[in-house]
Input
Amino acid sequence: MGSDPSKPSSINRRGFLNKTALTSGVLGMTALAGCNGDGDSTSTEGPGEGTDGSTDGAETVEAGEPLPTYTLLNHPQGYNPIRYDAFNLVAERMQEVGFDVEVEVFEWGTMFSRIYSEHNFDIGGWGRSLGVDPGERLPEMYHSDNTAPGEGNFAGYQNEDLDPKLNAQMQETDPDKRADMIKEIQATISRDAAYNPLVMFESSVLYDETQVSGWVDYLAGYNSVLNMTSIEVNNESNELVGYWPETINNLNVLNASTNKQVFTLNVMYDSLVAFDENLNYDPERSIATEVNRPSFDTVEYTIREDHSWHDGEDLTADDVVWTMEYIQEVEAPSFSDAAGRIDSVEKFDGNKVRVTLSNPVGPIHNLFSSNISILPQHKWEGRSDPVNMNISEPVGSGPLQFEYWDTGSEIALQRFDDHFNPVNFDRRIWRIIPEQSTVWSLIANGDLNYTPILNEGRELDQTLEQNDNLSYQSSPGSFFWFESFNLRTEGLDNRAVRQAAVQSMPKSIIVDQLLIGYGQARLTNNIVSDAFGKYHNDNIEEFEQGIEAAKETLREGGFAFKDGKVHFAAE
Amino acid sequence: MSKLKFFIRRIGQSIVTLWAVATTLFLLMRGMPGDPTSYIVSPDMDPETRARLIESYGLNKPLHVQYIRYMQNLATGDFGQSFHSGLPVTEVMWTYLPNTLILFLAAFSMGYALALPLGVLTAWYRGSRFEKTTIITSLMIRSVPAFWIAILIIWIGGAKLNIIPMTGMTSIGTEPEGFWRMVFSLDFLHHFIAPAFVLAISYMAYPLLLMRNSMLEVLGEDFIEVCRAKGLTDWNIMFRHGARNALLPILTAAAVALSGAIGGNVLIETVFGWPGLGREIVRAVLRRDYPVAQGAFLILSGVVIFFNLVADLLYGYLDPRVTYGEGEYK
Output
């Protein structure tokens, strides 16, 4: 499925970093072994984990109390009709297994509060992405320190053996060793089934091939700067014309919370480091023409000297230093994680910047260098309430600069000719179009020539079939629908219960029937897709799918069945 | 009671009503489930950052403190700042209100301009094929949702025949040059026709039927017979004597419809991609943008109260029989 306008991504990385107690100055640190606590290293135990007498799943177990009724929180149908149906189907299949499941529908904000802030849920039906580096997100979702309200581990998953591994991979500088560490983590989290992928989606774009070409398959998607600077536009006006279903409220880069803001601002501002299509640092695309790591917790950037802001002022190392200090001073929400990694910053040798990190960071570009937009000091200095103020005409240094913003109607960016990596078209326009049927018609007749956001399904199929000028391109992505359990809930704290629920998920049906093939059923319960290449563990054991398989898992876990319902074993 | 006293009394009642509306809005918004910061902040933020934002918006203060501050601000005309855009609420509303007014007032005027004479004629030619056709058509229009008609028109006129634009107030890529320059452009007129037409016919049905009913009552009065006996023309009797007296119920309906028109119609605005106030209000509610939602509803309530007051005063002007007793007409 295309970008979710308000999908959740990462939570509380800064808090996690603050709590991480690691010594600095140890180059090539590997996983912190030897931190296993006493006892079992798995998640919270229940019957069937070797602590009770009901360990032999082959024998019939006398039924005790029934499992409680579980509430599955789902989005409204109007938010995403296919996802709505998918999670309703998930609930029905769980009922067939013998769980008592009720579905409650909440709009996004309420659901977010219930799950993230209040932990007032049993099962949640969600969508999210892991970004470009799964190691960045996994600690938020699985580390035991992140289980407080508002933090990323809203499932309440706790694994004392896993916590140090989650920490260690963030500090590992050898990419291959780090990849192995992340793969090892995947094996554990897939088995423990706290967050369970239902469908994995590809990044995708629908476009008019008579007007636009040159899209690059890239994990960060088709709205990335890489794609904007790669594509070619071939129409009379030399314009790239897309749409967004909702208006953009604010172009304040310090407080960009939605995809529409991010995709607009990411082409208007540069970050220190930009990547090529293989997610490798590309000096030709970056503000920093050279990067050095003199020590584990220090990074030095050489700032290019021929670049300027959209208003003509020179972009210098002073701006970089000022930006790093400013985002800490104002506690800019957009950069809170990156800002939390900075201990100090200084300019030296004219155009070089040295950043001392508060904690050692292994994948420095993924976690830091590419995550801060460089700001013009001469525009931002002296602003009162910079985080909350409305910015209507932002000045950046990116390949596209602001042209006009007709609030509620349209936003236009024009090429910045002086950029070192310019776009190949004159203007990019986004028209605000809330009605989806209008979008299909407009792209069919060429008024729109690409879709920054795309809803796959039957309408897309029909549109492609009926219009030879349209093409659909997709590549492995990191966005997925998933089911999350609240491990604080009785019964859901038992791995067998969670695994059985996962086994009952009608993943293939959802992909084949509801999504008509758009999407990939995640049969291995691994939230890290093969889009992540070397970080993906393709040796994860599959769960056997089906109702009977789920029931068998429960029996083996020491649960009983009575009148078709799952029960705890009698005491 | 004199008109002046009536007017002053109604002003006082209006203020009390507005206060009640403001209080109800305040409590309703805060009673809704969900956290407004869910939409303000990014899930990337840590809880400390979210807490700071909550504090900056005053949402961490006790409810009574928030209420007092809200009322103090209202008394000075300050509706607060949007949580999402950071702009003053009045500025947010002024961004969208002109777009709504130009469309809905124009459609309202067209609708009523058609409805009133048609209502008179259907009453005059009662029993004719013309009357039956008009009534059936009006009832059908009343029964069918306006947004469905809108989708149909876009599909046929836009997607199939390519004779009307399918979205927006102007063509894609038109740089904004000021509201009035836009309004007086051919491009805007081209975009305006379809939504205005849909709204006009949706506004037309009710006053047409109301006018017909009112006219039928008036035509049964003795003074109409006197007019006929005096030899006045049918046209003269219909419009100069009959319609003028049948107009009073329409006035009330028009006042209510006009105040509703100012609030926009989120479905029409969504289907036609018209950047109006209706859509923005709905988004504000869904995003828990309290200041915008509260401010918008309060202003709209004020407009309703105002237009109802105007209608009440006009009654006395149009109908000399109307006097202002203790809280009622006589």
User: Anything to note?
Assistant: The radius of gyration of chain B is 24 Å. The mean pLDDT of chain B is 87.
